[in-house]
């Protein structure tokens, strides 16, 4: 999908949300986007491997992952031009421009070959983005289709806060709604269904009493 074909409404919405927030995003989100570092630690990107982040945002995660796996190549996709501007600065500041490539695209419908010159990836990761993407189920399917044999999809996002007090869940949901974020109640079900459909293995963890969910879908060699 070319930049001109991006879903304009959602792209404009994300640019509007993050036009100013992107400057303080990493400072504030570290307090409630929990589980991101656990996800990165579990990527286990092979030497000379490739990894794609869908919804790369400010570049915080992809920069951490690139430093952790110095022999791999990384690619980042986001629908927001505003976020990509910040991500580009992050990658340049960290001296990672030679190993990290960024592109603007729709995570529900992307052509990796056209965007990056790479058709399949050893790892694909999505951090707190599915809860912001309309038609997020398509992102799961698109990600699995873009994995190389033996590759894996890693997802961390808001859970259902099932082990936390109801008042906490209500306050959190109200706060997230201001930023067009909706925790996906059926996330585990969709990932399990897609794992069965593709013959992949599925691992799932609840973090912090259900505050966050962490999942890995690994396809066969």
UniProtKB/TrEMBL annotation:
Example GO biological process: methylation
GO function terms (MF aspect): methyltransferase activity
Annotated Pfam families: Methyltransf_25 (PF13649)
Start and end residues of each Methyltransferase domain: 52-151
UniProt-recorded name of the protein: Class I SAM-dependent methyltransferase
Originating organism: Mesorhizobium neociceri
SUPFAM superfamilies in the cross-refs: S-adenosyl-L-methionine-dependent methyltransferases
Keywords: Methyltransferase, Transferase
């Amino acid at each position: 999908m070319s930049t001109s074909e991006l879903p304009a409404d959602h792209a404009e919405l994300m640019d509007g949300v993050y036009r100013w927030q992107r400057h303080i995003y990493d400072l504030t989100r570290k307090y409630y986007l929990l589980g991101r570092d656990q996800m990165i630690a579990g990527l286990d990107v092979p030497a000379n491997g490739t990894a794609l982040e869908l919804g790369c945002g400010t570049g915080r995660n992809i920069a951490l992952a690139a430093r952790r796996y110095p022999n791999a190549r990384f690619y980042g996709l986001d629908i927001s031009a505003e976020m990509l501007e910040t991500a580009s600065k992050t990658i340049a500041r960290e001296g990672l421009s030679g190993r990290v490539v960024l592109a603007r695209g729709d995570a529900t419908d992307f052509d990796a070959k056209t965007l990056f010159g790479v058709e399949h990836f050893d790892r694909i990761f999505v951090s707190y983005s599915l809860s912001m993407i309309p038609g997020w189920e398509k992102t799961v399917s698109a990600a699995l289709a873009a994995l190389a044999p033996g590759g894996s999809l890693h997802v961390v996002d808001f859970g259902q806060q099932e082990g936390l007090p109801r008042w906490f869940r209500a306050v959190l949901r109200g706060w997230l709604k201001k930023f067009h974020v909706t925790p996906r109640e059926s996330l585990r079900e969709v990932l399990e269904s897609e794992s069965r459909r593709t013959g992949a293995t599925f691992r799932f963890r609840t973090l912090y009493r259900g505050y966050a969910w962490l999942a890995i879908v690994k396809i066969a060699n």
